[in-house]
Amino acid sequence: MKFFQLNCLLIFSMCIAFASCSNDSSSTDDETVIEEEEEIELIDRADIDLNNWKLTLPIGNPTEIEPPAILEYYNLQEVQPYMFDDEDELAIVFFTEPGSSTQNSSYSRTELREQMVPGSNNTNWTFAEGGKMKGTLRLSDISTKSNGDLHRTIIMQIHGRLTNEQRDLIGASDNNAPPVLKIYWEDDRISVRRKVLKDLEVDDIEILKKDSWKDEAYDFDKIVGREPFTLEIEASDGYLRVTLNEGEEEVTYDDIHMEKWGVFENYFKAGNYLQTTESGAYSYVKYYDLTVTH
User: Fold this and answer.
1) Potential cystine with 141: which of 64, 216, 277, 284 (Cβ 3.0-4.6 Å)?
2) Is 176:161 a contact under the CB 8 Å cutoff?
């Protein structure tokens, strides 16, 4: 009987010891998980929705990154040298240098192209449908020309697009139409270029051709230099307005040229489109926010 009691006591003691060890191990595992979770670094990024943007890079043929891949630009090795986060300023940096260019240009870009339907270039908007783009940005660095002047870069655009029927009508090789609006950072100021017709009596076919249009320039007075500024573009039927710094300065176009531009489809562009092929040239543009509405 005493032998039986002794064995029971021994077994009971072993069970308690085992349970104690098991609990200690579980506690250690939980602490390890907590420590690992605490080591995860959360990166603050600019609040820019990229679901409706395609990215063009100055590499490849050139290289393009569409949604949904662009949503993880910070994990894409080929993107990181050209589009990356500035955690201190909560901005997305667009860097470009002379390299690969698109079919209708000799200049390189790190630039976003609006896609109303993610992954497709075929759905765009007309001035009758209208659109607004607003962004806060700054040029943080740009190279100097061989003559000592600064290079310039395009930071926003409204680009025209031919429908397939218009393309075939004029025998064009692609759907590319002129950009009705180009906004430059140039000599520390913001410079606007919009398209006007060379001949207001142009017919319905000739109006679709690039050489029927020319640039008209307007320069804002404010010196923005390397400081942040806000640009807003508003387009509607026969109407185009560009505003700098919430109404500090603006230019409005509501004339016959904008009325006739209504034949084209359009899309917004934003980023860093460096206007030179000079060796060693570069530019950095930081976007803090960017929104588009229709």
Assistant:
1) 284
2) yes
**Is 76 part of any domain?**
yes
Same domain? For 168 and 203 the reply is yes
The answer for residues whose C-beta is within 8 angstroms of residue 49's C-beta and 6 or more apart is 291
Check whether 42 has a pLDDT greater than 70.
no
Is residue 48 in some structural domain?
no
Q: Which two tokens stand for residue 215?
A: 């640039």
Tokens linked to 267? 């899309």
Sheet holding 83-86, edge to edge: 83-86, 91-96, 283-293, 131-142, 229-236, 239-244, 249-253
CB 180 within 8 A of CB 266: yes
Give me the domain span that covers residue 161: 53-293
What is the Cα–Cα distance from 115 to 266, expressed in whole angstroms? 11
Residues 6+ apart with CB under 8 A from 8: none
Determine which of 30-44, 85-99, 177-191 has the lowest per-residue pLDDT on average.
Answer: 30-44
Per-residue confidence (pLDDT) for residue 40, from 0 to 100:
52
Same domain? For 190 and 75 the reply is yes
For 93-124, how does the pLDDT look when each residue is reduced to its tens digit (9 = 90+)?
999 999 999 988 999 999 999 999 999 999 99
Same domain, 82 and 196: yes
Q: Residue 24, class by beta-carbon neighbours within 10 Å (0-12 exposed, 13-18 middle, 19+ buried)?
A: exposed
As given in the structure block, the two tokens for residue 107 are: 């200049």
DSSP assignment, residue 43? P
Is residue 131 within 8 Å of 268, Cβ to Cβ? yes
